[in-house]
Amino acid sequence: MTFDKQIDSLPAGWRILVAEDNPLNRRIAISLVERLGCRADAAVDGREAVRLHDAMPYDLVLMDCRMPHMDGYQAAMHIRSRETSARRTPIVGLTASSEDDARLRCEAAGMDDFIAKPLHLPRLREVFDRWLGGMRVNAATAGGGDELDAMHAVFGADFAELAMLYRRDSPPRIRLMKEAAAVVDHLRLAETAHVFCGSCISIGATQLSALCRRLEQRARNGGADDIGELIGAIENEYDRICVRLQTFEV
Fold first, then answer.
1. What phi and psi, each to the nearest 5 degrees, are found at residue 8?
2. Are 101 and 45 in contact (CB under 8 A)?
3. Which CATH number is 15-140 given?
4. Phi/psi of residue 45, each to 5°?
5. For residues 206 and 187, what is the distance between their CA atoms, to the nearest angstrom?
6. Distance of alpha carbon 90 from alpha carbon 130, whole angstroms
7. Would you say the pTM of this structure is higher than 0.90?
8. What is the pLDDT of residues 37-70, one digit of tens each?
9. From CA 197, how far away is CA 202, in angstroms rounded?
């Protein structure tokens, strides 16, 4: 099935499965799905996504491609192997990979489409229009952006909850990065930086996400002399972001 396939326009109110291991990213995805008038269920990894799909006839699956235990590509292949000709659920990959790489890997796994992170409402609406049809949102909520103020504008009062979740979830990840760097565990450092980068993108901390991405690249390439500096810069930028976020939590 090619990515440009369209289906007939159908009424809104669909049931969506969101498979995402990152708590912040999962909460944001669910919020966006609900803003499009759909019901969202959550899976924390690929195994749970397969289990829930087997138990419930979902209208569409949003599948993070990188998850523990069973990644999104494997989960998609498992789902496809269990489907019958009478039921084929659209699966949309969520990925931070480059467009060409993401397209090829998603197609190979049996996915129908993909969305490059960070996830924003206009792009999600476009994908739902393509695979479910008939979705529309109020123009006032269709804005997006990659800054804290823009994310606050999208989520309104709900942003305070996201900010608190981000501030609770982030210190352990920073601590894990420091511990991994101290014992020269580049793989663990790269994986932790990757996960934290996703959280930073989702909340709108773009400068911090760029630092995490740079750290991940350094670690995957075998390390460099500036890893300590990068972690220090991440800590400083995180402190600045926290001060900003506290203004949204009042």
1. -60, 150
2. no
3. 3.40.50.2300
4. -160, 180
5. 23
6. 10
7. no
8. 888 999 999 999 999 998 888 889 999 999 988 9
9. 9
